[in-house]
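so my prof wants the structure for this chain in the C-alpha cells format not the other one, which i didnt know existed until like an hour ago. anyway here's the sequence
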Amino acid sequence: MTAGKPFLPYGRHQIDDQDIAAVSRVLAGDFLTTGPIRDDFERAFAAKTGARYAVSCSSGTAALHIAALALGLGEGDAVVVPTITFLATANAARYVGAEVIFADVDPDTGLMTTETLDQALNLARQRNDGKKARAVIPVHLAGQCAPMGEIAAMAAGRGLDVVDDACHAVGATYRESNQTATVGDCRHSRMSVFSFHPVKTIAMGEGGAVTTNDAELYEALKLHSRHGMVRDADKFENTELAFDPGGEANPWYYEMPRIGYNYRASDINCALGLSQLGKLEDFIERRRVLMERYEELLAPLAPLVRPLARVPYCQAAWHLNVVLIDFASAGVTRAKVMDRLGQKGIGSQVHYIPVHRQPYYRRRYGDILLAGADRYYGRTLSLPLFSAMADEDVERVVEALKGALG
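here's what i got, hopefully its the right format
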C-alpha cells in the first residue's frame, strides 16, 4: 500500500453528521422497526422517482423477490434476464419456481438490447422446452439506462411484463420523444427495483425498494414483504374470529390470506435512507465530475484502456466506474493488474461474472454461448468511484493503473 495514503475501495458510502443525527433520532424514539419514518421514506422515494407508489424492503434482493411474487410468476413461467448482472436478478425468478432465459449484452456497454432480447426469445422458442416467457428484467448497469422504451415495445408484442432492475441507477434519467424520463417512474415497466447497499449512490445500510404505478401491484408488494398479513377489516375472511357480536373488528385480529416474508425495512434503515435521499443530486453530480476526470486522464491509454461505452440517450447516475482493458495486448492478466493495484492501495472489482456460467445455472441449462457477454467480461474492471473521492484520488488511481499495466 502507498505509504500515508488511505486505501481506495471500488465503492463506499458517504455518511455525514446529518445522517447520524437522523438515525439517532429514531434510536431515541418509539419505533425502531416499522414506524412512521418508513412511511415518510416511501412517500419521498416515490416522489423522487415520479412513481405513484414505493414499497421499501430489506435489500435489493428482497425487492426483486417480491416483484416476482407480485407478478404471480411460478412454475411453467420463464423470465428473460441479461447475463451481465448480479446473481439476485436471475435468482429472483428461481425463488418463485420460474425458469431463467439468459440474454446476451452489448459487449461495450454490458446492457441488454432489443436485439439480444429478441435472440434470447427466439433461442428459447427453438428449444421448445415448455418454458413460457412471462417477463423480462432489463438491468441498468453501472448507472447507465437500458433502452426501456424499445424493450417495452418489444415486450408488449411478445406478451411480456417488464420489471427493470434499477439497483445501479437511482437518479438516472433518459431522453425520449423530447421528454425526460426518470428511472423508476415505471412508464415502461410494471415495477422498478432498487438497492441501497453501502456501495450504491445512496445507502440504507442494507435496504431496497420497489416502485410501481399499479395499485394492485402495490398492495401485493406490501403483502409479500410483510408476512402476508392484513389488518384491514374489509379483507377479513374468517368473520367468526374477526368480529365481535356487535360486528366490530376485534382489535387484536389479523389474517394471512397468503404466505409472505419478513422483508420489511426498519425505521433505522429508512431514517438513513431518507437523509441520504436529500443528498442524491449532490452525490450524482460529484460522481459525474469524477467520471469526467477519469475519462480525461484515461484517454491517453486508449485503445488499451477504454471507458465503458456511453449510451447517448441516458444521463447516467454513475454507480460504478467500469473500464474495458485489453489485457492480452497489455501482456498481463487481470488478476495481476488487480494485485498490483491493491499493492498501491487501490481497490478494484469485476462486475460481473456472466450469471449463465455459474455452476448452478450450468447444471440446470447446460453450456450457453453468449459472445457479447464473454467479450464484456473478459475486459471489464471496476475502478474506485464514490462521492467522497478527491480529484487527486482519480489521478492516483490512473497512475497506479498505468504502472499495473506495465
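also thought this was worth mentioning. The first strand starts at residue 53 and ends at 57.
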